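Workshop exercise sheet. Pairs work together: one partner reads the sequence aloud, the other fills in the structure field after running the prediction. Swap roles for the next sheet.
Pair: D.N. / O.F.
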Amino acid sequence: GELRAGWRGRGLGADLVRTVQAEAAERGLALDLSVGTDNPRARRLYERLGFEATGGDELHVAMTWRPGLRRRGPGLG
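Structure field:
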């Protein structure tokens, strides 16, 4: 899904993702998603929340988050 334009930038998307991450962490599950290559703002949000790019194509970037996964920092992977 996607937040309507008037609701973007208010932290709602991040809150929703964190809620899903907490549920997944309790169950020991990874989360996978796809973000459009034409949506760098959403990709930055997911990266801030610990998702890492795992593949994709010219239209989409596949990203994964795992409980306990630590970001390696900018430019390190």
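Discussion prompt: Residues 73-77 have pLDDT under 50 and may be disordered. What would you look at next?
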